[in-house]
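Changelog-adjacent note: as of this version, every example in the card shows the full chain rather than a window. The one below runs 112 residues end to end.
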Amino acid sequence: MNTKLRTPIPQSFNHPIPRSWPTPGTPSDLLDALVRRAASGDKSAIAGLARVFRARLEREAARLVPVSEAGDLVQDLLLRLLEGSLAPPGEDQPAVPWLLGALAARVHETDR
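Full-length structure tokens:
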């Protein structure tokens, strides 16, 4: 397939990316960074986490509580992130498992 561009790309855009520029990591690295930012209280990261990861969080929550309560549990977790009431993950601790652990811990807190 030979497609002609309607507008040619200017030569100034044909430069390679300098090696010093950061390149994105794997999706899990990006998600880990998003969770860490959310855990530190970054509101835009919390909003992004809610958009990107909410469905998975709700599936995980549905393993722990009745399906009808899973959304509320996730909402409570996101609210706790907004309030800053969760201790963020340690430097050497993967952030996504930390978040899933925080979800499970919330279930055990409400069982008491």
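Structural remarks: Residues 9-24 have pLDDT under 50 and may be disordered.
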